[in-house]
Known about the structure:
By secondary structure, the chain is an alpha/beta fold. Helices cover 46% and strands 13% of the residues. The protein has 16 helices and 10 strands. The strands form 3 sheets. A 4-stranded parallel beta sheet has the order 5-6-7-8. A 3-stranded parallel beta sheet has the order 9-1-10, with helices on one face. The radius of gyration is 19 Å and the shape is globular. The model is unreliable at 316-324 (pLDDT under 50).
Amino acid sequence: MILDIAKEKISSGKRLERDEILALYEDNDLLYLAESARRVKEIHSGKKIFYTVNHHINLTNVCKANCPLCAYQCQSGDNRAFTLELAEVEKVVRSQGSGIREIHIVSSIHPDKTFDYYLDAVKLVKKILPHVGINAFTPVEIVNFAKISGKNFSEVLSKLIQAGVTSLAGGGAEILSDRVREIICPKKCSASEWLEVMRTAHKLGLKSNASMMYGHIETIGERITHLLKLRDLQDETGGFMAMMLFPFHPANTELGKKFNLRRVGSWEDLKMLALSRLVLDNFKHFKAFWIMLTLPIAQLALNFGADDLDGTIGEEKIIHAAGAKSSAGISREALEKIISETGYQPVERDSFYNEI
């Protein structure tokens, strides 16, 4: 029986294949998945749960992609529209305390801003906070930078590295299926482009995170394909530092209205996290992105394979535009309390999981 084979492989630390992954998903034994994922997590990280003191900067919400999945984007002239000029970026960066470890920068696909605008923003952050990691831009944005600058992926990424980017953001993967992407984000990059940007970044020595957004129109088979594509690329490059899973927040989105979608429940969140930990046997770290999951579910996720609560965030706009009810930021002390309550050890880290 396929399920028995899958469980034997988990017990012996062998790699799961597609039909075995599907059997585990359909078996729906959440406690078995939790116990198995927790055991694998503790092989990598022991009793440590990581977090970082970081701050998110969203440069603009003016976007030409008009993705049905997005509630954040808007058009120029909309009363919600904003675009930070360099003086405003400087004000945000200078307001950060001495304990900041990472600045996270992601935006939209602005119809008018040049590649130099983004380079200048990174250079400014680097000048003000020279010792802070800059985790910036998703492959979707890198593809856009290549188009507007006439450069290839390698040239764009090399320019960003020279400007001060130290790691690449993992968003924009959604589901790595062009069938799905044609419906939920038709003007974003293709699945193969997302993977190629990551491959190129890793070859240049630029580490990155990976992600998956589930709970919309994708099939379970497409979720599994997504995980296997990430696993294959990690086998090839070893450049992914951590995996993040995002439940789709349908409120205020055209996709949610069109397909009458509802946010999946916490059972699905925890099941997908644990299953992904077992499938992605070459990923060391998994984030429970509390701003997406809510703090209570993120805390539970520490027993379902997650070993990282991401960070203090400071300010987040993209997910909250889609109806997320979590706060926009949290203190270091609150994160440590949440971790300690689970019996695990809170460990502050930098962008590369070096312990502070």
